[in-house]
Predict the 3D structure of the following.
Amino acid sequence: MLSILFYLFATVAIFSAFYVTKARSPVNSALCLVTTFICFAVLYIMLDAPFMAAIQIMVYAGAIMVLIIFVIMLLNLGTAIKKRYTHALVWGGGVSVLMLFITNVFIRRGEMSGKVGDVTTQTIHNYGHTELIGKAMFTEFLLPFEIASILLLVAIVGAVILSKREV
Amino acid sequence: MIGVYHYLILSAIIFSIGTFGVLTRKNAIVIFMCIELMLNSVNLTFIALSRHLQNMDGQIFVFFVMTVAAAEAAVGLALMIAFYRNRESIDTDDFNMLKW
Amino acid sequence: MYDYLWLIPFFPFVGFVINGLFGKKIRNEAIIGGIGTLMIFLSFLVSCGNFYALLHDSEKVHQQVIASWMSVGNLQIDWGFLLDPLSALMIMIVTGVGTLIHLYSIGYMHGETGFYRFFAYLNLSCFSMLMLVLGNNALVMFVGWEGVGLCSYLLIGYYFEKQSAGDAAKKAFVVNRIGDFGFLCGLLTLFWALGSKGVWTINFVEIAENAHLLESGGVVVTVITLAFFLGACGKSAQIPLFTWLPDAMEGPTPVSALIHAATMVTAGVYMIARMNGLFAMSPDTMMTIAVVGACTALFAATIGLAQNDIKRVLAYSTVSQLGFMFLAMGVGAFTAGIFHLMTHAFFKACLFLGSGSVIHGMHHGYHHAHLHDDPQDMRNMGGLRKKMPITFITFLVSTIAISGIPFFSGFFSKDEILWWAFAGERGHWLLWLAGAVAALMTAFYMFRLVFMTFFGEQKTDARAKDHIPESGLTITIPLMVLAALAAAGGFLGVPHVLGNFFGHMPNYLEHFLAPVFEHAQVLNGIAVKPELAHSVALEFSMMGASIGIAAFGILGAWFMYIKTPTLPGKFVASFPGLWKAVYNKWYIDELYDAVFVNNCKRIGTFLWKGFDVRVVDGIVNGTAWVVKGIGSGLRYTQTGFLHNYAMGMVVGVVVIVGYYILGK
């Protein structure tokens, strides 16, 4: 059952991702991107990470996509005239396939190792995913968390300055 | 049974597609979306490995990647607006001011 | 009192800073000159206090460390001062004569543009000289050593708008640099030589204590002392390097008196005296010094015979007298050398200041008559004794002193040098002969100068001759004081035979300086030859010979310039070649130009046009050319299109990651 679900959502994700690159209208691209994001959220749930799935929906499918759509509308971008680099198509395709090949080799080799922790499925079920994340975030990773908040603040200020008409 | 390898292969495929999009498209917003795609595929890798190693750190990292992505979206889109205001276009062919 | 030692160089430095920084604003000559003179006078007072304290102190060596300069490994170098009888005597001379010359300068430099500049430099040179004299290690001495060289340059070039003054300043500086090179070589070799024996020091007291570690008479000591002697040659104008001093007369006359007669040029003599322990260990060096000194004394005296410029005669006389001092050092008569240094400071300063007074008067006269004749040419003078009586008397006293007439200061000091040259263990009768002939010529040309300037008919242009006044008080007071010192200063060092004659008058100076020199002299067997030491008859006959020589010189001058004034002309006519050679200073300058200067220029030109322009510039320009070529080729790769850069990045990542993954 889980396998079928995984293959289903994986296929949808791949196809919609491909359509993001292919769609002529940016709005279509954006919609396909949302589809991919949602598929990813499902996969996160299957990976016992419901909190990540929730913020995936909220931040990506929600906030960032709204921002992108908003900009598309603001700039009034219609359907793009069919303009692609033909030579870039070849090069880009070649490089992408090569990259896929290399990563596959790496994954197949199965040399993934690291510090094995104690967060089993059982722990997640007992404590709840959100609580575990929160604990880690506000104890061990408190400083990066605060720095991230400052980064966001700076980004807001930067965005405001950049989009002001006259500086 | 679905193992960590499946997830990793999936994220590799998505990442390659994102790369392909970045390299072939001309519309800056689409390129931007492709970059988001690549970031997401990396997130997937992080979470998959985090589960595989029974360790929370990868998920925390994903959280920060999302933060950075949000910041990037804000600044990047603001840049695009600023550029559009100058050139009436967001076609990357017009982004050639680095030329000799 | 010794705690205030640092004040001695400090006061002139303060004067330098005040006059140098604010002199231009102050403008008032009385204030500027007053500050300059006051500072050196305060320094003189402190010196007097220290001198007096030392005189009544059984401990004769005092050091004061102000601050640490550098500390490297075992080597500790301080800003420290050393007071012993030698430096005490020197600071008395420097500050005493310095004060008088500062006072004199107020009158002499009146109305000059850059009056403040002159006093600033003068103070700086006193400061440097005091650092040189008081420094307790060779490096502090070297600071002073370079400082006086710099001041000499600045003051010779005081009238920098004059081409000849600028050239003379540069010449002095360059020639001094050669000497400084020798000094540094000597210092470093000494440092290395003592260091290899385990003593890392350049402190004079410690050098003296540890000198015995070096092999007496060995190559190392000889090399060290010869290098130091080269330094002394440069600073004190000895034979290979004496050419700068006569040219230095381009500076204002007080400068000639202070730097080029009384203080700076004696630095070399002082340095040898300061390191007498080392020098005494190398008989070869001592012999070299004695020979060079004797030759210089003789050689410069011959040139002095034929000069017509009043200051040039005095300049060659200075070189000659410095030669006497080196002769004294060379035969081990350190006390006699320092004694002559002191008396020379008195009478030569007086002579220079007197000549300055004459020039001042002549200049005044010419200025009044709107003439542009040379106020320094003795052929235009004559009969000035009635116009400038004080100048004349003081000048005459000093001339008698330098000529060696008994009971004037020069007689005692010169006679002691000649006695040591003849009777000392390291003396030789040839050295004595050279000294005696030089003394004869000294008496001759000095009285020639006096006769040409002050006696006979006044040969000045008729329009100017009645407007030559006696100089003012600021000029005549120093003259009178110095003349008094020149007359009486010799009684500080009366030789024993004469002292006995006067009723047990001791040789104060020898007694005073004994702690500094006696050790080295005893250790290295420097003394008067035992078979001659108690020969009173011989010493008296030597003295008699000296007196005879002086009298003969004076009479000769009188005969040639007063009795039969046509005689010099006839003499010139009968030996035209000889006269011309002497008049042109034996063509030494031309010789140096041909041998050293022009070849240096040629090498310089080659290095400039051949090496620098072609090779060095070629490499530099070639590098730039290659980079430019590569750049102009590569810039076409910068298309400016975003995609090309993105593609480049991705390809780069793929290649690198691929290399690591697939390459394993």
Q: What stands out?
A: The mean pLDDT of chain B is 87. Chain B has three helices and no strands.
